[in-house]
Amino acid sequence: MSGYQFDFTEHGPYGAAMRLLRDSDLRGKVVLDLGCGAAAVAAPLTGLGATYVGLDVDEDAVTKATERGIEAHAIDLTADSLLADLRAVVGERPVAAVLCLDVLEHVTEPSQVLAAVTELTTVNPEAELVVSIPNVGHLDIAARVLVGHWDVTESGLLDRTHLRFFTDRSLSELMNAAGWYEAAREDFRLPESDQHWAGHPVFERGTNIGALLELVRAGADEHGTVNQFVRRYHRGLPRRREQQLPEQPFATVVVRTTGTRPDTLTDVLCCLAAQTTLDFEVVLVAHDVDSTVPLQQLVDQFEGNIARRVRIVPCTGGTRAHAANAGLDAARGDYVVFLDDDDLVTANWVENIRDGAQTHPGMVVRWFAAEQRRVWLEPGKRAKHAAVGPLTATYATEFDFLRHLRQNETPFHCFAFPRVLATLGMRFTENLTVCEDWDFLVRAASLCGVFDTGEMTSIYNKWGSKNSSDLIATDEWQAMRTMIHVSMDAKPILLPPGSVRGVDVLLAELEEARRTISAQRAELEATRQSLNDYREVADNAHRALAELRSSTSWKASAPIRAAGSLARRIRNR
Amino acid sequence: MTDVAEQDRAHPSAGVTTRAADDATPTSVRVAIVAYANPLDELWRCVRALLRSIDNAFETPGVELNAVTIDLGDCSPRRLLTNEDAAALSAACPSRVRFEYRWFGRNLGHSAGTNALCDNAPEDALLLLNPDTYASPTLFLRMLRALRDGDVVAVDARQIPAEHPKHYDEVTGTTSWASGACMLVRTPHFRGVGGFDADHFPSYVNDVDLSWRLRLAGGRIVHEPTAVVFHDKRLTVEGGVRPTSSEEYAGLLGRLVLLSKYGKDDDIADLLDYLEEHGTTTQASAAEEFRRRRASGALPETVAGADHVAEFTEGEYGRRRF
Questions:
Q1: pLDDT in tens, chain B (322 residues)
Q2: Is B20 on the interface with A (CB under 8 A)?
Q3: Do A319 and A284 belong to one domain?
Q4: Does one domain contain both B251 and B226?
Q5: Are B57 and B88 in contact (CB under 8 A)?
Q6: Hey, CA dihedral for A271, A273, A276, A281, is it positive or negative?
Q7: ∠ CA A363-A364-A370 to the nearest 5 degrees?
Q8: pTM to 2 decimals?
Q9: Could you tell me the residue range of the domain that residue A82 belongs to?
Q10: Is Methyltransferase one of the keywords (chain A) (predicted)?
Q11: Measured between CB atoms, does A216 come within 8 Å of chain B?
Q12: Domain shared by B106 and B214, yes or no
């Protein structure tokens, strides 16, 4: 905290801190700069009409500031008497703002400093608090740790005098607990911080691994390149951290419905109600439904054991992927699984997922489905729909990543994924009108790997009419497929173990196929050539014959040929 | 369990409906559930759903339903329910629903167990229900309504997730036979044909036999696809319904006995020939047992004049949709 000689620049964190106070009325009021060091922000604050007061434990720094005509006092932020010391400095003067620029990370108990500031400003509740604090969640630090380094420096992200380290989340928790709530931010970003290791493939974004790490970090939150959090806070009531987390089920089953198929939705809820384990919740996403009342009535028809597990989440507009994201956002379970409102599952559907997740935690759990053809029946029939074909095993029993890059072999209700994927930025791609499940599965599989349970616990209803696969034109499927491939190709992708041999086999098959095609083409060409030769001979013969027949000698000898022919017939009798 | 005044308070619609003269809808039902070594969770699942479905029927305006008894018959070697369990299940019942539990102390089989539960039942109709089921909220109501017409003597529900492939008329619902996994049958007709043939069909194929005898007696059987019951069937990796351990043997033996009972000697010969050639060990055992019974005269007497109800199509009972 002492001895730093940071200069003020408009483009640095201090400049950002000053801009956060630009619209505040500082005139004639005190701005306390805790840990002021060389009082780098004294001039700009004075320029805004504030009464700048610098405070620092370093008496030399205080003396130097005082010599420059700046009000400064020696104060130890860790002293038990901090509040009294601050009050003594401020006196009766109104406080407009308190600055903690590169300070809180230097004290063992920043909450005590904040508590003193909170208490001090009780008489000036409009006072603001501006904080600048290093981000330990910078991607460069993560990369350093990944390669086994924790390199403390004289200054910077891992300054040797830092006692506490903050991420965006932990900073917010600290501030909220002290009763300070964020009003504005101008975080100082440095894509290449002082911890960057130039030329190292783990750090460089242009490398595969560098790009992958950036992808993972960027998915988690938007603070991977923030060097300093620079934020302004206003006062509020301290928020206590939740001591008891709400009940968290093992799984969240997301059912998307447009409310137009109550019969099949009832069947789906029956399937869920009959599960052998009830350690799940149901998020029923009502997509573009005018009123959720009929849906709630349908749910309320069920006994409480299932009805109380169902939450209806309204969702308006957007694609089916938008509804999927609404379900994902509402999910609380460790694992998330989707079940459309017209498919069916066996009673061990959730149990099978749970068993898979227990033996292979963190992985995508996959099983497979039987397909059954169903049709909607015309009015007047006893039922609205009926099965018209047997259960058939049409889907791949084992997940093959490479094959899934080409086409989806896993219905949406045949895989479950850890919900924490959402905290890595995994979302359903909302500009996809179809195939959103395929796109998500491949990306999830790339990150998590896939565990096949080997069980068939789902039934995919293939409707003869009125379903999306019939209504959506082939060219739309093709367009979406292209979009997915373009999107996937924009980022590095992890291949699961076994992929090398898989690719090798595919390439070998391709080479063999090319050889075969090449050989057959050559054979075809030779055959064509032979045919052409024969045609030429035949054509020549025909031409010669035609010439002969049109010749005078041929016509003149006609009676002789006729006599010869008659003689041959007589001999042959 | 409650007096009439209390019932009326609980169900304002009760007692104010007028019933059409030709309305043959049952007004009281006994639910017969035969259990054997079922997990307690499964029994609770079954009863929980059933109670809700019954309650929904009670609450439906225009439905004249006076009383329902749920009779759980336990064929397990040890009691599945303690007194406390039975009391808890009983306490879960709404008014006008009574829960009874009987431990038979021996494995009677589904047929004899059901017959025992239904013996002397005063209710209009009997809902025969497997314990590994989950009734949809409207199952009870829709099963009742399917018996509105007097000529319909039994109805079965649409089973999910594996829908039964048997054929039914898409408009009238008329079908060859009703599945005993979830069948509502009029008590007088059930009793009139002697209930299940427990001697020859202790647990399997008994529903087909019962249905055909009901039809021989002039009754109509219907399938009600809007009445949905979840039947806890598991699937094989090939997409088939996974049979229970005893199903392969008992099901095949039952099929052979059924063919014999309805005079299908040619079909028996074909089936036995096929089993001789392609049958599994279990199937061979069933065929052997059938031959033994035939030799010892232990097969049922042939039912005469049953060709119009005893429909065997490509080895299956009745026609199939797929």
A1: 333 333 333 443 444 456 888 899 999 999 999 999 999 999 999 999 999 999 999 999 999 999 999 999 999 999 999 999 999 999 999 989 999 999 999 999 999 999 999 999 999 999 999 999 999 999 999 999 999 999 999 999 999 999 999 999 999 999 999 999 999 999 999 999 999 999 999 999 999 999 999 999 999 999 999 999 999 999 999 999 998 878 999 999 999 999 999 999 999 999 999 999 999 999 999 999 999 999 999 999 999 999 999 999 887 898 999 9
A2: no
A3: yes
A4: no
A5: no
A6: positive
A7: 145
A8: 0.88
A9: 13-235
A10: yes
A11: no
A12: yes
